[in-house]
Amino acid sequence: xxxxxxxxxxxxxxxxxxxxxxxxxxxxxxxxxxxxxxxxxxxxxxxxxxxxxxxxxxxxxxxxxxxxxxxxxxxxxxxxxxxxxxxxxxxxxxxxxxxxxxxxxxxxxxxxxxxxxxxxxxxxxxxxxxxxxxxxxxxxxxxxxxxxxxxxxxxxxxxxxxxxxxxxxxxxxxxxxxxxxxxxxxxxxxxxxxxxxxxxxxxxxxxxxxxxxxxxxxxxxxxxxxxxxxxxxxxxxxxxxxxxxxxxxxxxxxxxxxxxxxxxxxxxxxxxxxxxxxxxxxxxxxxxxxxxxxxxxxxxxxxxxxxxxxxxxxxxxxxxxxxxxxxxxxxxxxxxxxxxxxxxxxxxxxxxxxxxxxxxxxxxxxxxxxxxxxxxxxxxxxxxxxxxxxxxxxxxxxxxxxxxxxxxxxxxxxxxxxxxxxxxxxxxxxxxxxxxxxxxxxxxxxxxxxxxxxxxxxxxxxxxxxxxxxxxxxxxxxxxxxxxxxxxxxxxxxxxxxxxxxxxxxxxxxxxxxxxxxxxxxxx
Length: 524
Fold this sequence. Notes:
This protein is α/β, with parallel strands linked by helices.
């Protein structure tokens, strides 16, 4: 064997040198194509996923990610191309066939039965039986080590509906692990998770790869992709445009591959500073809400985008709730849009020109089983018109205007909102508030779970609302958004407003402030 056989190592001069051997490819997709009618979802898609690795797949909405994952999970059939598992070509014609070949998937929208127990959800349609009867004892025995491996310490008889979102996610993962998979697909697994739950999820993923399980990880959160993934594949228009180890990539390169432009171009240009003092739209003095928010004071001017930074539970969500009338303050004075005091409920808030785009759009911002038209008209008809009727033609015209303005991709106004992509759902949430022309806009993580292209459009809309004289309070879990959009940033820590930062603050300084409540000490 020559030195070249050892990857360039050999001889007495390199006794500790080893060849770097990549683990074998467990999933190989070659030339996969899929069309729906005249729309191409996948076009000659290639992908190679190695055993014991986290392989991230990223791209804008419509890039083909979900179609690819559904094909691998057996939920959708490809028109052409091949799939090999451990070098052997397979047919994944149904979810059961995919499971039999070791493919497991956790979808973004959890598919649990809330009224049934954790144990019952783990064994849906595959309950172990003894003498023809379901054996709960065997179910509990099989479930115990899997629940322990994902760190879910709950009574297995607890109804799933009583669990937190993070705990439900763990039930989904445990259900997949009970199938002893070779590959686990996670489709936007942490879009609804807080930071602590995301840390827990990542810890589980790191344990799974040590067992030689391959992870296919689909996410819009690029910071987390770079933290957890070993390799990244970028999809655009149904095809792979970049696929490399994460150590060979920079985030700006990935964004450029996703959208065809540089990261700096995502944010609209700032306006020149306004001379003199702008009229205040919101003045908060000593606001206290229970123990969640303590003695907070600040002001926000018309035409200003004020960024709100803080960890989960730092008080930002409580502040937005108080201004919108869903949380009752214990103390403090507030002047909001030339009126003393805070609105007592969301309806009164809307009538005063205050809007809130919530972080949980599916449960708090939308009526998923209702049409795009009904959702876009909901605020203007219910709150502003005080229950009076409007002609359907007028409602449709107004909704159609928002669809066109926000470039909402929907087959029709009659389409159920639940059928739209995440980015288009978020545009509907924003559009229903634009109908009332709000003067104070509260945005709670408005781009969560939204692809890069939709984010860019939402950024532009935020800037347009501010340029039109609106006041924006903007919370984001992505610090780059605060730095790119806000005119200034207020940092909350453990219920208190601790620091105000300029938009040009360095990322590491802002991260330090969010995690400690203060800016780092200046270097000597």
